[in-house]
Each structure stands twice: as C-alpha cells, then as structure tokens.
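[scheduler] slot 2 assigned
[scheduler] job type: sequence-to-structure, two independent chains
[scheduler] chain ordering preserved from manifest
[runner] begin chain α
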Amino acid sequence: MKVKWYGHAAFRIEAGGIRIILDPYKPGAYGGGIGYGRISDEADLVLVSHDHDDHAYVQDIKGRFQLIKEEGEWEVKGVKINGINSFHDDRKGKERGRNLIFVVEAEGLRLAHMGDLGHTLDEQLLKRIGRVDIVLLPVGGLYTIDARAADEVMDALGPSFVIPMHYKTEKCGFPIAPVEEFVKGKQYERVDGSEIEIRREDLGERRIVVLKHAL
C-alpha cells in the first residue's frame, strides 16, 4: 500500500490496483489559508470526510472516479471502504457538524483516515472502526483534535503506523499548531519525501512518520 501526502488532510492511496484520493482541498481556500498546490492526479475513488473547501474540492481530479461522502460500506475491486460517522467538534456536531472516518482495507492492511475528527473515541466508535494498522491523524487542534487528544486517539486505536496531518506548515496559514507539538517527546521519523510504501511485514512496533507535503 502506497500512501502519499499532498498536504493538509489530502492523501492518495494506491492499493489493490486502485487509486484513492482522500479529502482534496481547494487551493487558495479561506482567503489563501490553503497554500498547497492543485491536486490533478487521476483517481478511481475519491473519499470526502465533510463538505468544507479544505476537504471536498474534487473539480481538479482526473479520471472517471466514484465519489463517496456518506456513511456506509463499499467494495471496489476487492478494496473495502467503510465510512463511519463522527463529529467535527467535541459537542456532537453542534459547532462544526459531522465528520466521516474512512477505513480502507486492502492488501491485508487496514488504514483509517480520521478526517477533521474533533473528539476522542468512545467504545462504540472504536468497535465500529475495528483494527487499524495505519492511521492518518489530525494533530493541529482548533478545528480538530489537538496533540493531546491525538495521543489518546492513537493509543486507543493502537496502529503500527501513525502519519500526522492537518497541522500548520509554511503553506497552511490556519492558526493551528505545527507537527512539532505532536511529536515532541516522542520517537518519530521525518521522511525526505511525500510518500511511504507499507506492507504487512512492516507492521510491528509503532512508528510515527512525518511526511513532506507533495504540493
């Protein structure tokens, strides 16, 4: 399974012979707060956690893709997708509405993209998510969980690979925390690139992997 980080919460997953793009942002959205470049790759599936411009801009994506932005279960060429309702805040959606967690199962691996998760996970939600080998985890706070809550979510899910997302960079002008707030005091790897390939035999002790944004 190949995992590529475009920037913000946008990723491209290649697994089981299909191409999946998750949470594509609109370049220049929110008064230029999103400074990452245009996502114009081809996709077979596009998964959108919620309908905000920094997560739901599909207009530049190429190919005859299937768009999924609701709760439910799908299977495409043997790749299983599970969209699970959660909230964009810690007040059951009263402030920012709903958020979808997507679990992608392929090649013997289970990856969870947490979207703009705004709260920690209760037992019911943990049961619905199930085993997680790889988690794409927001850590910047304010609009999502912060570093401390991200620690709780990470520990509850127990993945082998943790890839932080949705944090402040030189191309994200949002008033959120940088990734250093999350990795502080932890062992982590900073990859000199935007992509990582993960196989079942790579699973084991937890690895926090910080990618470079591709765009």
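[runner] end chain α
[runner] begin chain β
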Amino acid sequence: MQPAKELKAKVNRGELTTGPLVIDHLWPGLMDHVLRAGMDYMIVCMEHSCHNTERVAEMCALGRLASFPVLVRPPKLDFSTISRTMDLGACGMLLPTVETPEQLDVVRDAIRVPPRGRRRPGGMGNRWIKDMTAADWENDVEQDTIILPQIESQKGMDNLDAIVGHEVTTCAAIGPYDLSHDLGVGAQWDNPKFLTARNEIRAAAKRAGKVMWMIGDGPSLANEGFTFICVGEPSVILESAMTQIVKQTRGEASEESLRGYNA
C-alpha cells in the first residue's frame, strides 16, 4: 500500500501534512480538487455521513491509482465493522472515541490475519493485491496501515498512554468537539481545561515517539508546531470561502459606490 507507506514516512519525519475530513459530500471529482489544492491525504467519514460502501471503495481505489492516501473513519470499533472497513481498501482509519487499549486489540485482530490476528484476506477494495495470501496481506497492507485513535472522552484521557503506546497506533489523535463536551467545556477552544487535555495528548504522543493528528485552523495549528493537520470538512471550507467572497465583494461594491458619489 504505497500511498500509506509514503504518508506514514512523511508524518514520522515531521513534515507538514494536510488533508480534509469528508463528511457531507463525496464524489470522484473531489479527488481532483484535493490533489490540485496540494493536500497530502483524505479521510472519508462513515461515522456521521450517508456515504455508501461502494462509493467509499471507489474513492480508496482512485486514491491508490493516484498515489494519494485515503483513510476512512468507521462508525464503530467492533471486529466486523473494522474488518469491513479494511475490505474497502482504506490506507488506514481514524478511529472514533477510543477509550481503552482493549478496543485497539480488537482493531488489531480485525486488520491482521492469523497468526497475528483473526482477519481473513479479501474485500472489494483489495483486488489490487497480487495474491491474497497471508504473507501478501502482511507485506502489502498490514505493515503500512495507518491507525489514528481519537481521544474524545475523559475515559480516553485516563487511558491515554496505553492507547497512544499501543502497537497498532500510528499517531495520537483527538476529537476536539466531543472531548470538549465530555470535559464540560463544549467548543470552548481557549478554555484551560480543554487546552490542558489537548497538550496532554500531544505530550503522550511525544513520550511514545509518535506524532499527534490535530484538526482545526491549519495556519494556527502550524504556528503551534503541529505537523499532521486536518484542515476541516470540504463543505464547511467551501461555505467559509463563499462567505468571505461575498463580504469582500459587498465591501468593494460599497467603496466603489461611495467613490462614484463623491466624484
């Protein structure tokens, strides 16, 4: 899985990497827009979306053909859901609400084939693998799969080091919205309680020799030293850009009108 291998290497070197979390609208042409924008990866959300599995598998295949990593956020962490997500050909997964290392044991077993796990090779998104043997699966998929467990609750914070240090964890990750609400400071991004938790996750990643995945305002996060950044949801980015254009246009029109009147 070359795209996953290259992204993992880039992240581990501390290079700045950016990508969107796609929730609302997913279509093949989005791949062109993301590539032209210069992004490094894409995460397709199946937790809060209506994307069907065939479309997600198509996007994973397009990414592989374009040497562009497509990760998936599954709706749940049970064995069947994780195994099915891997069937789609994902380069990795953003895992929602991870609270214990035992949950990651299940994820590991659903990714790896015996004797390393309990999964069987296969899936509609994995036909590119030359021979569907255990050795091929290990070499072509297992070794490169990217796993990002999101800390989204106090219970997750309580088990932070065990989650981040787990053998299957590639990078620490945060679910800022859910975590802030679980801490009682919903969406208060400057609240000391939230900032302390965020910094603790980052410190745990550093202790484990890993990087932290963070979602938010790209320039601000880069200024804070984050390197593995999700810049947001494409529909939200589009709405924000359109709003800014409208405001600027109305402001320029108003200035032109005033200049014309004064003349």
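[runner] end chain β
[qc] chain β: The chain has two domains: 2-232, 238-263.
[scheduler] slot 2 released
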